[in-house]
Amino acid sequence: MIKQCRTIGIFFLIALGLNIAQAGDDLSPRDVVLTTSQKVLEELKDKNVNVNDNPEFFYEIANKYIVPHFNFSRLSQRALGKYWRDATDQQKTDFTDQFRQLLLRTYIVALTKYSAQDLSTFIKDKIQVPPVNYPPNAKRVDVKVIAERDGGGDPANITLRLYLDKEKDWKVDDVLVEGISLITNYRAEFSNKIRTNGMQALIDELASHNKEVMEKKATNDDKSSQKTKSDKK
């Protein structure tokens, strides 16, 4: 349904190991992105678990280390473009909630083939952040991240667009993978759906999609639990 899933999934895989700190720490935007979160690595390195076995563990990490560094209301507004102005307050709230869930679900799906130990190794060994040139009073800065791909080949080039918010925190404003903007892609897709069926239909579709993912997850959890009980007999 949502074509941008792989794009945001690639980014979240990288962002998992990056601690986006406060500008008040006197860090450059590059330092902000480059600073590896030792807490994340400590949580990952000794865990013998993958997403399919324990998705809640990875949801916890996402909510703890990634979600605080995104302004989902701002991202939602940009993703809807001109249609944000026409939405009711309730629709804005509902869309933001469903869009946030979509991005988090995508993050989890992107990690399904990895164990915690695999992620720890990936974060430590396969991410590079080149130097960034920007004026000292900059409010927006692009930080490039180069990540090795599984199985070799050309590395993935990701650009994190950071902006300085009112609290002087650097937050992610957009993600570009190989020059393609996550927000621009979503805006094009959402605009088409709104023109065809309206804002509420888009929100309902996102809600249905998120519910379907959760129900599938619950079914898989039940099967996994039954298998575990069977193996113990």
Architecture in CATH?
Roll
CATH top level label:
Alpha Beta
- Rg, please? 19 Å
The total number of structural domains is 1
Q: Give the termini separation.
A: 41 Å
Q: Report the order of strands and helices.
A: HHHHHHHHEEEEEHH
- Share in helix: 55-70%
Named CATH topology = Nuclear Transport Factor 2, Chain: A
E-strand count: 5
Which parts are unreliable, with pLDDT below 50 for 5 consecutive residues or more? Answer: none
Secondary-structure map:
Layout: H1 5-15, H2 29-34, H3 38-45, H4 55-65, H5 72-80, H6 83-86, H7 89-110, H8 116-125, E1 127-128, E2 140-147, E3 156-164, E4 170-177, E5 180-181, H9 182-197, H10 199-232
Antiparallel strand pairs: 1-2, 2-3, 3-4, 4-5
Helix pairs in contact: 1-7, 3-8, 5-7, 5-9, 7-10, 9-10
